[in-house]
């Protein structure tokens, strides 16, 4: 009879941290991203090193970052939310409406309004998915149509333009603190908070458990419906926040704002190594995926690839990264099996 | 040790009798997804004929079929793919890529339309096969793969066309797909749709290949153990999907006499909405082709009637969305409603197979 006891690790905390980073699935895309930035900068130093280039490098991905993080939380539970693009469009427009009604509205109120509107939409999706036990893909495809239709119906050919947004709000779109854009700071804080919650909090761990085996989670007595509902509310709220970001950044909103961005958000999640069938992945991965997706579009022309082929490169990258994910997970499985057989 | 003996319960099972039962024709009709969609289609169509001005006009049905022909075409293979529990989000991008191939070959390289169409369809089949390879042989989730190829194939179309404007297809063949059959309200493309619909219908509902499509949808693993070549089946389905999307691309190019980088973009969601509305389960294992055709036509008729009624495209979007959500919720409750309704015992002594109502709901990833 063999005794197997778990001993505390003999390695130092630093060694363990390094080992964790080296083994992490996210490392591959970080390397791709770093190489991309490096190559683009050597070709044209202003890409990152100029004031504008530095700001754009950080600012451009901030909207998609929020969407990708929210989407990731939903995808971890083995669901998906296709309505985030419509939510973004609605909140960007609502932001403009608030300012038109009262130009002196404090910016914080507008941010909270965006979060609230998004959360309500997320709650609607969450309710439909959990109460009726209907596949999220179909439900959010439906709500995507309904919300976009409602927005178009309300807005028509009307559009919010720069003069509808007060100057201080518009400035916020490009404002920087210590050379780092404010919107990026907020987005990174959100990523950190959600990441911390998913990594450490009971509720966060339960989201993973629900995603990796819904039946088992149910049998074990996890409050699956409540957690999934919460994930949709969070995803909607972050999409709402992204709408406010979009209004601040572009100072414009019309009926088509954010249409099509839902697939980009899902793509960012997939590139970031989050399994589309739930249960694994990190918000860091999703965030880096969003970063990579946006940076590629800026970098390709500099690298001498015609802008017309960008879409193809992005597509190849998405497929490449899921293939890589598959290869890595197969290798991991094999190693685990070997470790078991030699134990 | 226990030895297995052919014991009594097994023998008993063989002769077990179930009471034959049935419901009234109306209940049966309303409890059947496909029949419900067809009824809805007929009701909306008849209502529109009587109440929407100009809906009974000479070109309404023609225009409606002309516009929805590509969606109808792509919905056929998509039905089979969704029944296996997979999905193909890249169909509209494949359509765009093949339209671009057709345009470049005909307008820039002076190839004849039929030759260019054949090349485009071959390219589409290849793009579909690539999806199929990743899904079936590499074992990747189709949702993720086809989000990738959605971007990739659209990117190919953009790369091929760049900022050129491709227009002006030569020859008499250009208008053939949209020419009307004699003096009827039907464009010629309807003939193509009918032929393909019959072929796909036969394939799905009357062949062993079709049975294996359903089996895979119910359980990949069980299908494999019962001797179904799951990987090959999926590869064939994705290849067919690519080829049919390419055919739709050639049609769209000829119909609009021009190709742009965004040709057909957004069609994938319309196709999927039509398939799901037609009663195919997103979990796989359940669905029928006639329901899907009715589902797409229902969207087309609603679209056309609302447009003629002076409603904007946003109302149509809202209605399609509500229909989609409502129909999925309704079909979720269907088994429960069915269980509540009384059954009439027809003859209690008849030996019969357990009726298969087709509600194979499974808890798996969507």
- The assigned structural class of chain B equals mainly alpha
Mean pLDDT of chain B: 84
Largest interface: A-B, 54 and 52 residues
Q: What's the oligomerization state?
A: heterodimer
Order of helices and strands of chain B: HEHHHHHHEHHHHEHHHE
Count all strands of chain A and give the number.
Answer: 2
Using the alpha-carbon principal axes, give the shape of chain A: globular
Q: What level of helicity do the residues of chain A show?
A: over 70%
- Helix and strand element order of chain A: HHHHHHHHEEHHHHHHH
Describe this structure as you would to a colleague:
The complex is a heterodimer of chains A (343) and B (366). With 343 residues, chain A is mostly helical. In chain A, 72% of the residues lie in helices and 1% in strands. Chain A has a two-stranded antiparallel sheet with strand order 1-2. In chain A, α4 runs parallel beside α9, α5 packs parallel to α7 and α5 (84-101) crosses α12 (224-250). The two termini of chain A are 12 Å apart. The model of chain A has no long low-confidence stretch (mean pLDDT 85). With 366 residues, chain B is mainly α. Chain B contains 14 helices and four strands. Chain B has a two-stranded antiparallel ribbon. A two-stranded antiparallel ribbon of chain B has the order 2-3. In chain B, α4 (60-83) crosses α9 (208-218), α6 (113-137) runs antiparallel to α7 and α6 (113-137) runs antiparallel to α11. Chain B is globular. Classes of the chains: A mainly alpha (343), B mainly alpha (366). At the A-B interface, α7, α13 and α15 of A face α7, α12 and α14 of B.
